[in-house]
Amino acid sequence: MEGKNISTHPDVPGEPKRTGTAMVETATATIQGFSPVNKIHQHLRAFHFYGHDMTRQVEVHHYCGHQNEEFRQCLIYDGPHADARLIGLEYIVTDNLFLTLPDAEKPLWHSHEFEVKGGFLFMPGVPGPVQRADLEKVAKTYGKTIHFWQADKCDSLPLGVPQVIMALTREGQLYENLAHGVEKRFGVSFEKERENRAYMTGPAHGIHPLANAGGKGLKTVLRETECKPVDAVPRVFV
């Protein structure tokens, strides 16, 4: 089987944007502030696979901002272009913050050491020494990722249940066609970058055994349940 390059995708259905809509967008962009989005300061390109199916591998583009030195949050798109689709999000925490998580939570998070040291996670267009100064920090972190749009299925709209996503943790997992395609399009060499990053280290406490789904598969399943009525919610009067 082969992985999917989802940087090219089917058009999202719907009428073309009208002039009136464009005018409103121009006005609101001038008047309003976009502080949360304006905190985005870096573009990280990587590979993901579905937590329950390693054959479903996709190329993804993270647009990230720091909340502080130990926590960053990223919007995930299926490409780096203006018409890219927002398909998910990822939270990234340091080893220290990860260790504070309940054990039941830890399997939802994946380690970044292998994909960083392997050269698979990189900042397009940023000189090697500059990006390595930050990626040596990323190599020590964990990420929690959810994809809402199963773009590898070429769905024109975000269908299905959001799924937990994992990252590469060892050799032999990544489809060669995906790797070669990215190297060609971005003018990078994973082998060369792997040599440049050999000095990097992972989490200070080692990769936690419960991370990366504890070595198992994780799949989100929707279950029907009773909806708690408003009368059952305690009312607080101020």
From TrEMBL:
<dbReference type="Pfam" id="PF06884">
    <property type="entry name" value="DUF1264"/>
</dbReference>
<dbReference type="InterPro" id="IPR010686">
    <property type="entry name" value="OBAP-like"/>
</dbReference>
<protein>
    <recommendedName>
        <fullName>Oil body-associated protein 1A</fullName>
    </recommendedName>
</protein>
<feature type="region of interest" description="Disordered">
    <location>
        <begin position="1"/>
        <end position="20"/>
    </location>
</feature>
<comment type="similarity">
    <text>Belongs to the OBAP family.</text>
</comment>
